[in-house]
């Protein structure tokens, strides 16, 4: 009998624990997203600033905002970069998206195609700030597919180009490269693979990084993945020319499938005078002691093209009006000059402004950690303005480009041609078919 | 008295079911519901946003899978990979278990070294291997080219399909053999030592002792180890995907074809096809072993 009673007790405990667990989850959600008993509007802000110092900066901005808006509470939700995509999909799939989400432009496009984003709210915030306040390149790549709105509110950016060690070039009496031919000339002059010296550091692995870098060469030769009518244009003479050039250039780079770390290590270790990388290389160069020798140039055949990522803030669709208003207020608050500079100062050198008024402001330029790169400010600002992306044509951003990147159709083509020595025509055909299949 | 006992027995059964009910309900909710839902969405085009309606597409998702050449290539690669890794890791684990089934100085240390590859997180091992075989500064290339001067150029280990397949297979065998080893060591310790002594007295060789004494004792464990390892290796993803992009096993195919584009309907269809394949494979293994047992 005692055993029976014990069994019943244990079973009851198990059931109550299970139901209690479910119960607390539901009430937590209610409190976090809806109106709390205090009458305040509570919203969540999901971002990728997971390091403690960055979280402190985000929290300080939130505290300032809450002081100025006493009826709004903002909850900071930092999420690791590696888990970010799956978190968006999981939260969106369960209808639990936070009110404000930090996105890359690609993530933002995917969220718009899944109808996760309140496009009207985003447009209102941008209009309120004024489209002229932003760099043109930053707004161009964040437009919606029909060009009538924006996939998110730009808050900061990073750009990518060819970083050049000018001191190494001077030793050989070479000038900064200005076009494709110059790049090849410099690369050939430094190439000595037997002694682990390379002309340039390029990515060649099947990865988004390879697609990003290659896109600069293709776009500078007027080759894009789509035309303005969304026809797939992978297999074109312009694209073929870009692939051939990339293959030739990669012969002066490290052997095999190279990735982010390989490119960065080769440049910082002075094994090469040129590397394709983002502004996130600046701190590593500064630590290596040659920040003053750094120059940024862009691949240029018919026009100079930079690649970059515009970080945007998305406002979730399907919320109560009060929550949407609170989210709009918070995003607008982050666009105010002082708050935007605080945000940018989280990673000096790495992230760059998208607001014109910030670039020249003393609070931004005079930061100690940023002074070493003061000479690059104009080049970086020009790169933000020269931003072009695969899938962005005549002010239209085709959301399918996110799927093209995710399946690696372009980077697989590059890897096969450069590393596996596959036939260029055949690979272009295969990539064309793969992309066509995706947009059906 | 007898009828009272029977009545009590019936009550006890009902009571047992009542106690089991919470667990059974949980099982149905956590395993049964997702399985049925998976079958349902395999016939649908499913949007991520729950506010958007799913569209019934009939057998389109299955057709897309069966019309894709790379699916068959992937099945072929996965079957060879599964057979090689399961057979060699099991045989290797068994051989070491038989060797270790004795007392010697430093046994605990050797034991720890053997299971090291199984207990260290896979990501650490994967990156260690990638650094070892790195095309620019890997120690393997350094030894081959700079120290031993066996070649002028470094082989691109993880960039060529053949070498990548061989390396991934070796990695998986090295990573997984300790599981077989631990399973066999546990069962070997329970084998009566007098059986080996009797075999010795009959003049049996080591191989004859293995066939007559060891094999019958480990057979149930062997079936379990082979069945489980077959299932696990068949669905392998992390180890292969992080090591190389040149070995397109089914786990990688599933990710590339469906999850990378959030096509959950197609992902569900692929998972059902894979379930049928692996279920048939495991049933075949069990049937084969059971038939041997009957013989």
TrEMBL record, chain A:
**Signal peptide residues on this chain, from the entry's feature table:** 1-20
Question: At the top level of its lineage, which domain of life is listed?
Answer: Bacteria
| Pfam name, any one | SBP_bac_8
Keyword annotations of the record: Signal, Transport
> Which InterPro entries does this one have?
Bact_solute-bd_prot1 (IPR050490), SBP (IPR006059)
Q: Which PANTHER family match?
A: ABC TRANSPORTER PERIPLASMIC-BINDING PROTEIN YCJN-RELATED, ARABINOSE-BINDING PROTEIN-RELATED
Similarity remark: Belongs to the bacterial solute-binding protein 1 family.
Indicate what this protein is called per its UniProt record.
Sugar ABC transporter substrate-binding protein
**Which species?**
Blautia parvula
Q: What is the lineage of its organism?
A: Bacteria, Bacillati, Bacillota, Clostridia, Lachnospirales
From TrEMBL, chain B:
Record flagged with keyword Flavoprotein: no
InterPro entries to which the protein is assigned, alphabetical: MetI-like (IPR000515), MetI-like_sf (IPR035906), UgpAE/MalFG_permease (IPR050809)
- In which broad location class does this protein mainly occur, judging by the first location in its UniProt entry? membrane
Q: Give the signal peptide, or none.
A: none
Q: Where is the ABC transmembrane type-1 domain?
A: 75-285
Bilayer topology reads: Multi-pass membrane protein
Q: Which residues cross the membrane?
A: 15-36, 71-97, 109-129, 164-188, 222-244, 264-285
Q: Which SUPFAM superfamilies match?
A: MetI-like
Query: Which residues are in coiled coils?
Result: none
Q: Where in the cell is it found?
A: Cell membrane
Enumerate the Pfam families for this protein.
BPD_transp_1 (PF00528)
Which CDD domains does this entry report, sorted A to Z?
TM_PBP2
Assigned keywords, A-Z: Cell membrane, Membrane, Transmembrane, Transmembrane helix, Transport
Q: Which family does it belong to?
A: Belongs to the binding-protein-dependent transport system permease family.
UniProt-recorded name of the protein: Sugar ABC transporter permease
């Amino acid at each position: 009998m005692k055993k029976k009673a014990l069994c019943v007790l244990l079973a009851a405990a198990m059931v109550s624990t299970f139901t209690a667990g479910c119960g607390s989850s539901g009430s937590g959600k209610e409190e976090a997203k809806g109106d709390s008993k205090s009458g305040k509007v509570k919203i969540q802000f999901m971002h990728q600033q997971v390091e403690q110092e960055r979280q402190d900066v985000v929290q300080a901005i939130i505290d300032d905002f809450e002081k100025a808006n006493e009826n709004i509470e903002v909850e900071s939700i930092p999420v690791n970069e590696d888990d970010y995509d799956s978190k968006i999909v999981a939260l969106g799939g369960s209808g639990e998206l936070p009110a404000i989400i930090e996105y890359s432009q690609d993530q933002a496009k995917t969220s718009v195609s899944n109808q996760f984003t309140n496009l009207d709210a985003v447009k209102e915030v941008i209009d309120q700030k004024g489209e002229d306040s932003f760099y043109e390149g930053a707004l161009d790549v964040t437009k919606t597919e029909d060009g009538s709105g924006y996939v998110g509110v730009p808050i900061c950016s990073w750009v990518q180009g060819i970083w050049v060690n000018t001191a190494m070039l001077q030793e050989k009496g070479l000038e900064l490269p200005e076009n494709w031919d110059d790049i090849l000339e410099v690369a050939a002059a430094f190439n000595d693979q037997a002694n682990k010296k390379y002309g340039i550091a390029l990515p060649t692995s099947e990865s988004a990084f390879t697609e990003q870098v290659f896109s600069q060469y293709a776009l500078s030769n007027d080759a894009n993945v789509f035309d303005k009518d969304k026809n797939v244009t992978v297999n074109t003479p312009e694209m073929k020319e870009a692939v051939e050039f990339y293959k030739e250039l990669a012969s002066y780079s490290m052997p095999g499938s190279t990735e982010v770390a390989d490119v960065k290590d080769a440049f910082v270790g002075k094994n090469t005078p040129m590397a394709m990388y983002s502004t996130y290389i600046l701190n590593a160069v500064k630590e290596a002691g040659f920040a003053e020798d750094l120059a940024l140039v862009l691949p240029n055949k018919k026009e100079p093209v930079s690649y970059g990522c515009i970080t945007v803030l998305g406002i979730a669709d399907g919320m109560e009006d009060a929550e949407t208003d609170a989210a709009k207020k918070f995003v607008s608050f982050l666009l105010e000059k002082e708050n935007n500079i605080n945000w940018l100062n989280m990673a000096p050198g790495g992230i760059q402004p998208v607001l014109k008024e910030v670039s020249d402001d003393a609070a931004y330029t005079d930061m100690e950690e940023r002074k070493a790169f003061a000479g690059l400010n104009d080049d970086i600002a020009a790169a933000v303005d020269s931003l072009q992306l695969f899938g962005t044509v005549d002010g239209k951003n085709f959301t399918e480009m996110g799927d093209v990147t995710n399946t690696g159709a372009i980077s697989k083509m590059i890897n096969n041609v450069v590393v596996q020595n596959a036939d260029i025509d055949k690979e272009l055909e295969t990539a064309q078919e793969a992309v066509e299949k995706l947009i059906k | 008295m007898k009828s009272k006992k029977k009545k009590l027995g019936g009550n006890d059964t009902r009571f047992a079911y009542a106690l089991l009910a919470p667990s059974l309900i949980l099982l149905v909710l956590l395993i049964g519901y997702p399985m049925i839902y998976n079958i349902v969405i395999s016939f649908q085009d499913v949007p991520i946003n729950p506010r958007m309606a799913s569209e019934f597409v009939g057998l389109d998702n299955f057709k897309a899978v069966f019309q894709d050449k790379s699916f068959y290539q992937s099945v072929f690669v996965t079957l060879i990979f599964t057979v090689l890794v399961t057979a060699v890791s099991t045989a290797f684990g068994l051989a070491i278990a038989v060797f270790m089934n004795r007392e010697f100085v430093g046994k605990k240390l050797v034991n720890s070294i053997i299971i090291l590859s199984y207990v260290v997180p896979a990501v650490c091992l994967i990156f260690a291997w990638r650094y070892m075989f790195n095309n620019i500064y890997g120690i393997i290339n350094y030894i081959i080219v700079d120290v031993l001067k066996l070649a002028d150029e470094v082989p691109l280990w993880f960039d060529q399909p053949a070498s990548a397949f061989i390396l991934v297979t070796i990695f998986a065998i090295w990573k997984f053999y300790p599981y077989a080893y631990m399973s066999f060591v546990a069962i070997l310790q329970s084998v009566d030592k007098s059986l080996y002594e009797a075999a010795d007295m009959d003049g049996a060789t080591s191989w004859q002792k293995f066939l007559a004494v060891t094999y019958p004792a480990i057979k149930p464990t062997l079936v379990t180890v082979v069945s489980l390892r077959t299932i696990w290796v068949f669905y392998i993803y992390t180890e292969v995907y992080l090591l190389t992009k040149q070995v397109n096993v089914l786990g990688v195919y599933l990710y590339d074809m469906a999850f990378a584009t959030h096509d959950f309907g197609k992902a569900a269809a692929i998972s059902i096809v894979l379930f049928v394949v692996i279920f048939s494979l495991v049933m075949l293994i069990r049937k084969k072993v059971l038939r041997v047992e009957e013989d």
